[in-house]
Amino acid sequence: MTQPAVDLAPDFARLRDPDRDTAIREITTTIVALPSIRRHRLSNTEMSTREFVLVRVRLENGVEGIGEAAVLGGPRWAEESVESIKAVIDRYLAPGLIGCPAAQWAGIAARMGRAAIRNNAAKGALETAILDALTRTLELPLAALFGGALRDRVPVLWALASGDAEQELEEARAKLDRREHRDFKIKLGFATPEEDIARLTRLREGLPGMARLIVDANQGWSEADCRRHLPALRDLGVSLIEQPLPGDDYEGMARVAAQSPIPLMVDEAAFTHREIARAGAMGCGSVYSLKLVKSGGLMALAEAARVAEAAGMELYGGCLLEGSIGAAAHLAVFASLPRLPWGCEHFGPRMHRREIVRDPLLIEDFHLHLPTGPGLGVELDEDALAEFARSD
């Protein structure tokens, strides 16, 4: 599906006074804890409940927008936690935005940049809620702000991260049988590399219907581990290796990438545009993982995609286990990209026993489908929100 770029001028003309009508009246935050269908393990933590911050923005015209700030098990993946995100928005970001027109999103981003350094998850969720409210006002899909959707669905993989190969085989076979996922990412790094390889071998042998096999060590391997085990990963038909070394080891990543017959993906090594350009120039990897929590805003996420491509890297739609709200925000950008050769990994909406939206995003025929309707295209379930909102 291809849509032409959208001219916003007629829609703004419908507003009596765009600056007044889209002025931000109220910003509220809620910490939400959703139980997962199973434990999810990373190299440095594991979780069975996913916590995030729901941001709600109400404009003077009464329209409300929503955004999601995701974390992985507290401040372990990056420096932010749900508690810090809520505090930063409530105390530092929100006060400076009350009264600002949502239609002036560049100025809003500048104000947030002056109010707080980094805090990218907080900024990304707040900007998402503002842009959701704006595009709901204009009765346009959020993707319109990025030139319009070039596709209405994106290939989506499933992550296997319990560490129990037999449980993972059962889980993956069910995904294949239901035609939900055929590409799989295997989380490594919480066992020895030898144990990781043995588990990968069992999964590869037990899943003949698997298409792409991607591995993610979450910065848990050393350069020596990579050199020892690259031949085994090659023999297992691994398609992509995500961030095997610590994020600040640019030189090590570059050496491994130069030796590896398998493409390396840059994730935690590059948050800012300057870091993306540096990683590309040093040859740290040939694929870049796009994440709202790294860019700090949807506009910056779209810019990050252009910087990464200019640096010679292909694009991959990364996630931090966002639910339907966060996934819909990412899809608004992903759908507008001319090239997204690695698809995305926004399986998060299926990781929860229940969501806080009425219609969770659709995964069908191995694709995640772009929601329809204005703004993000998802609506809050107030009853579910009341049930899962944290009281502390």
Summarize the structure in short.
This protein is α/β, with parallel strands linked by helices and 392 residues long.
Give, in spatial order, the strands making up the sheet with the most strands: 5-6-7-8-9-10-11
Please indicate the count of domains. 2
Helix-residue proportion: 25-40%
The tally of helices reads 14
What is the C-alpha radius of gyration, as a whole number of Å? 20 Å
What is the CATH fold-level name of the largest domain? TIM Barrel
User: Sheet bearing the most strands, described?
Assistant: 7 strands, parallel
Structural class, by secondary structure, is: alpha/beta
* Helix-strand topology string: HHEEEHHHEEHEHEHEHEHEHHEHEEH
Q: Under the CATH scheme, which class of the largest domain?
A: Alpha Beta
Strand content: 15-25%
The chain-level mean pLDDT equals 92
- Unreliable stretches covering 5 or more consecutive residues: 1-5
Q: Would you identify the CATH architecture of the largest domain?
A: Alpha-Beta Barrel
What is the overall shape?
globular
Distance, first to last CA = 45 Å
According to CATH, the homologous superfamily of the largest domain is Enolase-like C-terminal domain
By DSSP, the count of extended strands is: 13
GO molecular function, one term: racemase and epimerase activity
Active site: 187, 345
InterPro entries: Chloromuconate_cycloisomerase (IPR013370), Enolase-like_C_sf (IPR036849), Enolase-like_N (IPR029017), Enolase_C-like (IPR029065), Mandel_Rmase/mucon_lact_enz_CS (IPR018110), Mandelate_racemase_C (IPR013342), Mandelate_racemase_N_dom (IPR013341)
Cofactor: Mn(2+)
